[in-house]
Amino acid sequence: MNCVNYLKITRNYRNLENFEVKDEMEPILKEWQLYTDKTANGIALLWAPKTLQYAMRQNEKSF
Predict the structure, then answer these.
(1) What is the pLDDT of residue 62?
(2) How far apart are CA 63 and CA 57, in angstroms?
């Protein structure tokens, strides 16, 4: 069961139609590097098959 009130949400979005961002606004993470050379490898490990994850855990325990 969804507890979110549909009418309340639609009213809030109608108020945002005229929303404009001020010129002084800057991105929050402007100074941060969002990716490195290893980012793709890390994402690939997230989607790796379970057998690879199990093998990696076994290697970590041996150290």
Answers:
(1) 56
(2) 11
Show the domain range for 47. Answer: 35-63
Taking only the tens place, the pLDDT of each residue in 10-58 is 666 666 677 788 888 888 888 888 888 989 988 888 887 777 667 777 6
Query: What token pair was written down for 56?
Result: 């990696």
- Residue 45, Cβ density class (10 Å: 0-12 exposed, 13-18 middle, ≥19 buried): exposed
pLDDT value for 20: 81
Q: Count other C-beta atoms under 10 Å from residue 26's C-beta.
A: 8
Q: What torsion do the CA atoms of 40, 42, 46, 48 make, to the nearest 10 degrees?
A: 80
Residue showing tokens 């979110």: 4
23 lies in a domain?
no
pTM (2 decimals)?
0.34
- Do the domain assignments include residue 26? no
